[in-house]
């Protein structure tokens, strides 16, 4: 059972992540729907949230006028500087949780001199309460701010505290991770189809396999290599499959994460470029 959150949580931006966070907070039972406020310029994205009892606004000012205790900024990094500049006063005195890729605590704190900042990097499965989030408190954040941030993201899956210099890498692995995993699902399915399996059935079985592996590894804490050994009979089929796959897999994973990290740094520069060292 998720820890009960009594504070009022505002979410600015009702795209993939803002909607997922708002839905997840309500679905987990952590927050009563009337304590979750969401603002987005286009009303179409708000209607399904309003149906859940969440309070919705097409103007950020109106949301901020409700006096939320914490505000999650869930807009694109390219849009964020404009939102910070426009709502510096409305965000003053509040806990501001930014999930924008690559936007540093220093940059957020420089724009929001009177807010307490926490930076977080979640992933999309927060919507189904199986998300994974790293949080990092800013220099003005209190213990209560970190506790509230952890309560929010723990209600939505796993949440850990990381140092800020680890957050971009966590984003490149975990924030982007659902897309990498979906790619693997699709590639394995296509490989099955090449050998005559029906696509829909193959995809369902691949997905079920992934869920099963994740559940077993999470429950046991076992190292993935030890788990692999249990599947691999000496001289059997898995050994042959792994031998063919393994040579390229780590290089592909590193290339993907490196590219995501390079792009994170580009977005960081475009959003003001301040790092913790500036
Ligand atoms: N997608 C993901 O898996 C992850 C994303 N992130 C981060 O989350 C943030 C949001 O990403 P994502 O949800 O994918 O993006 P989306 O484009 O799906 O959502 C952004 C939302 O912000 C709204 N918006 C635009 N301008 C404003 C404004 N001035 N005020 C309020 N809302 C506004 C958009 O509205 P409209 O389209 O109606 O104009 C849109 O609904 C990004 O910073 C990203 O780096 C972090 C981890 C994972
Ligand atoms: O693609 C992006 O930029 C965002 C950040 C992490 C996942 N999605």
From TrEMBL:
Nucleotide-binding as UniProt keyword: no
Pathway linked to the protein: Amino-acid biosynthesis; L-proline biosynthesis; L-proline from L-glutamate 5-semialdehyde: step 1/1
Binding site for NADP(+): 12-17, 74-77
Protein name, entry field: Pyrroline-5-carboxylate reductase
Organism from which the protein derives: Tractidigestivibacter scatoligenes (Olsenella scatoligenes)
Enzyme Commission (EC) number: 1.5.1.2
GO cellular component, one term: cytoplasm
Keywords of this entry: Amino-acid biosynthesis, Cytoplasm, NADP, Oxidoreductase, Proline biosynthesis
């Amino acid at each position: 059972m998720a820890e009960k959150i009594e504070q009022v949580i505002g979410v600015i931006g009702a795209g993939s992540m803002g909607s997922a966070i708002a839905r997840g907070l309500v679905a987990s039972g952590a927050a009563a729907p009337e304590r979750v406020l969401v603002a987005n310029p286009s009303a179409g994205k708000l209607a399904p949230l309003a149906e859940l009892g969440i309070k919705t606004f097409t103007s950020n000012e109106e949301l901020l006028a409700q006096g939320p205790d914490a505000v999650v900024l869930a807009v694109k990094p390219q849009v964020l500087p404009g939102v910070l500049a426009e709502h510096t006063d409305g965000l003053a005195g509040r806990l501001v949780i930014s999930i924008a890729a690559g936007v540093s605590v220093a940059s957020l704190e420089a724009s929001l001199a009177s807010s307490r900042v926490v930076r977080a990097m979640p992933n999309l499965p927060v919507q189904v309460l199986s998300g994974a989030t790293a949080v990092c408190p800013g220099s003005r954040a209190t213990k209560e701010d970190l506790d509230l941030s952890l309560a929010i993201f723990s209600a939505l899956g796993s949440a850990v505290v990381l140092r800020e210099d680890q957050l971009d890498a966590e984003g490149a692995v975990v924030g982007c991770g659902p897309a990498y995993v979906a790619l693997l699902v699709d590639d394995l399915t296509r490989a099955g189809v090449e050998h005559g399996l029906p696509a829909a059935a193959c995809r369902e079985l691949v997905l079920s396999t992934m869920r099963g592996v994740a559940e077993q590894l999470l429950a046991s804490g076992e190292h993935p290599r030890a788990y692999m050994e249990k599947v691999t009979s000496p001289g059997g089929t898995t050994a042959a499959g792994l031998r063919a796959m393994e040579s390229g897999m780590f290089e592909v994973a590193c290339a993907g994460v490196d590219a995501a990290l390079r792009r994170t740094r580009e977005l960081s520069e475009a959003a003001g470029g301040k790092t913790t060292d500036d």
